[in-house]
């Protein structure tokens, strides 16, 4: 089930782009348009997480946060362009779970959201991605094909994760490197080539030949 | 005030006294008084005059020295008229009044400048917070529509963001009293967030990153924990790029190194701001470190987290 995220942000561009970003990362997103009805919307929608801007018309984020806390324990992520110790302290005191300053680093924002959701709604399901009979076991960092398995390194696992998530689509080398950097794996272009060769060797060893195809001057596709 | 200078100022009085002595001597001689009497009066007059001048000199010097000393010890010297004793002499009273007037005018001027400065800094702070909203929107737009073109824009946006952070940091640098939120932060988090904040710039420059030995944490209370500055300069026909920090983390906590091929050896250490930063916590013992820790290997340029 997709997790619902409610965005309380007055800047229309940021609101729209946040929705696009979060939807692209597998969340169901909603945005508040009438800020005087924010609490009602939170009650009606029962989101799994709220992204709350501190400065919003008719009210302020802190007030809304304290009102939400009277009836719900859902994770609240404060976002603001004004980074002061006082704001951060207030957000903690009023029950905020994270404090992110604008301009967001999208990777950090997504990582914080994922971590908060994992903590608030623990799931015992292990994530396994499958494509054309190959199964990528994320928890054990392993790839399986017809009963045969191969161990993967952290880099290899992340590269395959990205390819599985975008299965059927061409993933440019730049996109893959960006994704790795977002996950604190500082791989350069040469290292990516080396990793891809190793992944292909490991896949070939379990019978997955030509699983990753190179699209000349475009990237990789599975 | 020297004795010579004092005597020079007293020349008219001494001259009048000498004239008086001469007139008295002539008068006594005309009256037929013996030369011994004239000489005796002359000597006594001179002794009294010398004693008076010397006593007056010492008293005045003592008072002036005390005043000078008091002024030197004052942090805001223009306030001397507030703490000096009310003078008894008529001429000094006039000077005291002048000093008071000067002090009032100075205080008004300083108050005005401080007010203007505060208003300007508040405006800058407000402006930075406002400009961050469109930067965020642009970043999100580019992140959602990634292409080589938007990657270049994102790199430039990282630059703009750093400039706004610098301006914000300098605008807030005088308000260290607001720096009360002491907490433990992890070096690992700082380094990774610094790399994340400069991702496109680092990638654009084909930098290789080695982040080692970052499993440490320390206490800090300053905003921001680190002010990252991206810079580049040219030397010997080569372009050097660096990411530097101007806040303190003891260097033995580890470091990150950005390598760039064919770059000359670079020693860089920024001690520009840290002395004023009022770093409130953590390990202070390395703060006076002036050298970049350890040798910088040839062919590597970049940034070192270094101790202050």
Describe it for me?
The complex is a heterodimer of chains A (222) and B (308). Chain A folds into two domains: 3-120, Response regulator (Rossmann fold); 128-221, Winged helix-like DNA-binding domain superfamily/Winged helix DNA-binding domain (Arc Repressor Mutant, subunit A, Orthogonal Bundle), CATH 1.10.10.10. Chain A contains eight helices and 13 strands. Chain A has helices at 12-24, 38-45, 61-69, 85-93, 106-120, 154-165, 173-182, 189-205; strands spanning 3-8, 27-31, 49-53, 55-56, 59-60, 76-80, 98-101, 128-131, 134-137, 142-145, 148-151, 213-215, 219-221. In chain A, strands 2-1-3-6-7 form a five-stranded parallel sheet, with helices on both faces. A four-stranded antiparallel sheet of chain A has the order 8-9-10-11, covered by helices on one side. The longest helix of chain A is centred in the C-terminal third of the chain and has 17 residues, at 189-205. Chain A is elongated and about 60 Å long. Chain B has three domains: 3-105, no CATH class; 110-172; 182-276, no CATH class. In chain B, the strands form three sheets. A two-stranded antiparallel sheet of chain B has the order 1-3. Chain B has a two-stranded antiparallel ribbon with strand order 2-6. In chain B, strand 4 (228-235) and strand 5 (238-245) form a beta hairpin. The radius of gyration of chain B is 36 Å and the shape is rod-shaped. Chain A binds chain B through residues 11, 13-14, 17-18, 20-21, 24, 81-86, 88-89, 101-108, 174-175, 177-178, 181-182, 184, 186, 188-189, and chain B through 129-130, 132-133, 135-137, 139-141, 143-144, 146, 148, 151, 157, 161, 168, 178-181, 192-193, 195-197, 199, 203, 206, 208-211, 223-224.
């Amino acid at each position: 089930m997709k997790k619902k995220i409610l965005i309380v942000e007055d800047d229309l561009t940021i609101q729209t782009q946040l929705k696009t970003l979060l939807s692209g990362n597998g969340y169901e997103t909603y945005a508040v348009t009438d800020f005087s009805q924010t609490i009602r919307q939170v009650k009606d929608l029962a989101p799994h997480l709220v992204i709350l801007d501190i400065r919003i018309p008719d009210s302020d984020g802190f007030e809304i946060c304290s009102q939400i806390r009277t009836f719900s324990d859902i994770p609240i992520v404060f976002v603001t362009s004004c980074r002061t110790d006082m704001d951060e302290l207030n957000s903690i005191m009023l029950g905020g779970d994270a404090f992110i300053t604008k301009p967001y680093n999208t990777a950090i924002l997504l990582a914080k959201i994922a971590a908060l959701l994992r903590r608030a709604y623990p799931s015992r399901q292990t994530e396994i991605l499958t494509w054309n009979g190959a199964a990528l076991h994320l928890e054990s960092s392993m790839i399986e094909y017809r009963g045969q398995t191969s161990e993967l390194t952290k880099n290899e696992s992340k590269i395959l994760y990205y390819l599985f998530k975008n299965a059927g689509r061409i993933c440019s080398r730049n996109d893959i490197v960006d994704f790795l950097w977002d996950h604190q794996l500082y791989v350069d272009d040469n290292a990516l080539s080396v990793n891809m060769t190793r992944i292909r060797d490991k896949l070939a060893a379990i019978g997955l030949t030509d699983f990753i195809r190179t699209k000349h001057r475009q990237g990789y596709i599975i | 005030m020297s004795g010579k200078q004092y005597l020079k100022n007293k020349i008219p009085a001494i001259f009048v006294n000498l004239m008086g002595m001469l007139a008295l001597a002539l008068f006594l001689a005309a009256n037929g008084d013996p030369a011994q009497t004239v000489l005796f009066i002359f000597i006594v007059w001179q002794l009294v005059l010398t004693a008076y001048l010397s006593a007056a000199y010492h008293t005045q010097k003592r008072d002036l020295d005390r005043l000078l000393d008091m002024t030197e010890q004052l942090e805001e010297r223009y306030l001397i008229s507030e703490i000096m004793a009310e003078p008894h002499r008529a001429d000094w009273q006039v000077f005291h009044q002048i000093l008071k007037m000067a002090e009032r005018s100075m205080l008004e001027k300083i108050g005005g400048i401080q007010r203007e400065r505060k208003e300007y800094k508040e405006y800058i702070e407000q402006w930075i917070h406002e400009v961050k909203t469109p930067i965020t929107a642009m970043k999100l737009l580019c992140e959602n529509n990634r292409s080589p073109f938007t990657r270049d824009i994102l790199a430039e946006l990282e630059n703009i963001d750093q400039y706004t952070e610098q301006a914000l940091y300098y605008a807030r640098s005088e308000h260290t009293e607001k720096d009360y939120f002491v907490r433990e932060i992890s070096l690992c988090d700082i380094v990774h967030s610094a790399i994340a904040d400069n991702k496109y710039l680092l990638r654009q420059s084909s930098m290789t990153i080695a982040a080692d030995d970052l499993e440490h944490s320390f206490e800090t209370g300053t905003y921001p924990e680190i002010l990252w500055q991206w810079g580049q300069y040219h030397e010997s026909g080569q372009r050097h790029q660096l990411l530097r920090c101007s806040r303190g983390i003891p260097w033995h906590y580890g470091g990150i190194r950005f390598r760039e091929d064919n770059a000359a050896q670079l020693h860089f250490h920024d001690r520009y701001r840290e002395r004023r930063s009022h770093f409130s916590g953590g390990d202070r013992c390395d703060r006076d470190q002036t050298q970049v820790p350890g040798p910088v290997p040839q062919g590597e340029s970049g940034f070192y987290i270094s101790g202050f």
